[in-house]
């Protein structure tokens, strides 16, 4: 925005043909593949006449189950993108020794490590947990839907268009080179005048908005829509962790919004929040962003811990050990999670007393986490452990997470952190907890709840292969990273001069091999999906309860009907479904009533697409387009409030027909 | 959000009141008390600054902080009717949690900043609390 | 969902009740708590702005400061702030009166008081715009210093909420004229009154922490 820049094109702003990176072969090939896949998908949808079905049943759906599944599909697609980035980085670092420049230029490499972090956190981990929560929570609390079905749809589409924005940056312009939290002054207007940081900021802003909307919705759902009798101390642990997670989302994401907004203002309007001159202070950004950033870590990990609690209890055939202590541990993690943020910048120079306090608080959080690990172990103790795929993920998690937790405690000591800060040791630590806890949990969750969502199980053979390759791949990839970090290698390095003659290259070669082993884990997971869909008739589950599980979602059919439960369940015990099975619950077969349900709406996707156009226009300074799309966006959102006809009743005979079909299937079982 | 299901408008109306009671709704009397207290506290704050404060700057700032807290509480209690019985106590719980985070974020940020400025020796003219 | 009117009994008469046989209409039962939670996240949005103001609010960078606008005057004009405080408080009270009428189902009086609330909001915005127009004239803009960046962003964030409130109540008035004070509109009125009170609470923090404490320094 300096005065000597040439005047902007009135329509295209600063977007010119130069912004298309056609001179970079990697990107051209990627684009060709994506374009071919896109054309193929569009062609297939048109050929099979699926557009209408897709629009009516999925895109405009306000059904929490459908939205949850769409979140997970989005996350799996983005996982492939994020993993490709990881492989490219591992290859670059394995090659770039002894005078070799590797194969990635700095401009490209820096975008890759930023995109990898942003995608994995915001568009893989977050959609996975939000998707699983969306699918599971209303079923577990015996509700028909969430509190705000339209906002649920809007929240998903906001996340989706933010993901699209990140991917657009791959082919139009560039992405940020400032790391996944984008700390100024590197991301300020002077050091990064290009569009990369703007893409980053708007993607975060939009996905943050979507996440807050989702958080409010799920929080209100758990507070207001629990089935009769389902008091808080009877709530399944997954719902408890989700309650805490959504509270964390609502309480912490506003700080990300503020940090991102202020940095946008700095770049767009020349304010002086985080500049190094005119009284600005870049450290203020670091502080703000980590007030959000640390709770975000717990936002991602608490649902994972909830999933393990469900899986451990079901596959040990026992009630969860220490339910009450689990609840208190979850709540303590939630609260303490807010007073540890400075441990991300011990080295910033706040001195011994500040560092001491935050270091102590960080170490303290290991206690409730330890309580949880012991609870899972004692749940398994003397249980009839069934080594199904979800349970294998859980056991693999316990081993991996133990290591990650211990290195975390090492990092929490400020004196040690001065050595470990920004080193690969830190990278090893957070991948250890992110992969070991979040990825494994979400894999377990997909394996565990897949039969509920689609009515057939996933093929266990490929699932077990996926567990083994992920686990082994993880250790092969990250143990050398720990060693390299202790030897002093800093993160995000592109080319290594190794004057110490230690020959660290071997570590990076091993790490690259590990990354490929883990890649096979991802591939086997996709193969598992493919094989299971092909063999779905053989894997079909008509009972609705294939695992002999304990919570309410397994009391209804698989997949559940649109209305979830023909009659609202009444809960008497912690494990409501186990209790119902033990005390002779008989399924009602008559007396069905019309059921009140929310109506689909297209406002969510229309508004989100308009916001996508608006943000793209602002990134490229196309002020005319930005103005028009923003006006349309307001019009759509306000117009939606004039729609009072938002719900309908499913007639009693439709409910009766659906339920008698289920009765027939159950009778076939014998 | 439908209105078609509420054919008997008067009945539905009465039931809605029960649902939203506590938040947004209060008696005229509570609003009048709130108005009086809020006006008094605001006048007190402006008056305090108009007379040049009491004693030191710190003392005045602490009194102003107390007035601000009191004014917010008056608003929450008399206008917004936040109490432990409304919405099954959930407005109270969410408010308490939010205020906890506000206090943590504000106190933490200021503490971190002050120590940083002592340790990092900022450029002249950018100390946050000049003249203290 | 705690009220259970009719409970079904399983056949043998001994097993406990595992489901309700009646359907309950829960339309809009989450709106108030949901909106309240949204307001809480909005509180933290402002908390972030106040935190950044606490950090950078004293960084004048040799530019204007609250007591010295560089032209021999004060940057902060407390009389204007006092007038705005009175306007805000009065509009909160008027909004409360509108809610009293809403509760009684009196469309006319409710709309009258809501209209007056919006009018006070417009007056507040008018004062703000004149005040910051004046600041811009003497060269005190958001690009001048970190202090002014924080200060003006905070004020704009608050004024934006006031503007949103005014637009909201105008739309609500149209909808009430269309459909009367039906349950949906009544919920919207309740949410609006919460929102408007929240704006006033934010203004309390602005005038005490920014203006009054600013002139103390």
Tell me what the structure shows.
The complex is a heterotrimer of chains A (about 675), B (about 130) and C (about 220). Chain A is an all-alpha fold. Chain A is built from 21 helices and 2 strands. Chain A starts with about 25 loop residues before the first helix and ends with a helix. The model of chain A has no long low-confidence stretch (mean pLDDT about 95). Chain B is about 65% helix and about 0% strand. Chain B is built from 4 helices and no strands. The longest helix of chain B has about 30 residues. The N and C termini of chain B lie far apart (about 55 Å). Chain C starts with about 30 loop residues before the first helix and ends with a helix. In chain C, helix 1 runs parallel beside helix 5, helix 3 packs antiparallel against helix 4 and helix 4 packs antiparallel against helix 5. Chains in contact: A-B, A-C, B-C. At the B-C interface, helix 1, helix 2, helix 3 and helix 4 of B face helix 1, helix 2 and helix 5 of C.
SSE arrangement:
The complex is a heterotrimer of chains A (670), B (132) and C (217).
Chain A: H1 25-47, H2 51-59, H3 64-95, H4 106-140, H5 149-171, H6 196-224, H7 237-269, H8 282-316, H9 323-336, H10 352-364, H11 366-380, H12 389-411, H13 414-420, H14 424-454, H15 460-486, H16 505-534, H17 536-539, H18 576-582, E1 595-598, H19 603-619, H20 623-641, E2 647-650, H21 652-669
Antiparallel strand pairs in A: 1-2
Helix pairs in contact in A: 3-4, 3-5, 3-16, 4-5, 4-6, 4-8, 4-14, 5-6, 5-19, 6-7, 6-19, 7-8, 7-9, 8-11, 8-14, 9-11, 12-14, 12-15, 14-15, 15-16, 19-20
Chain B: H1 9-20, H2 28-50, H3 57-79, H4 90-120
Chain C: H1 31-56, H2 78-104, H3 107-137, H4 146-179, H5 183-216
What is this entry, summarized?
The complex is a heterotrimer of chains A (670), B (132) and C (217). By secondary structure, chain A is mostly helical.
- What would you report as the Rg of chain A, rounded to the nearest angstrom? 25 Å
Question: Count the strands of chain B?
Answer: 0
> Which bin fits the share of residues in helices of chain B?
55-70%
Mean pLDDT of chain A: 93
Quaternary state reads heterotrimer
The low-confidence parts of chain A are none
- Could you describe the largest sheet of chain B, including whether it forms a barrel? none
Order of helices and strands of chain A: HHHHHHHHHHHHHHHHHHEHHEH
Tell me the overall shape of chain A: globular
Taken together, the total number of domains of chain A comes to: 1
Unreliable segments of 5+ consecutive residues of chain B: 1-21
- The percentage helix of chain A is 55-70%
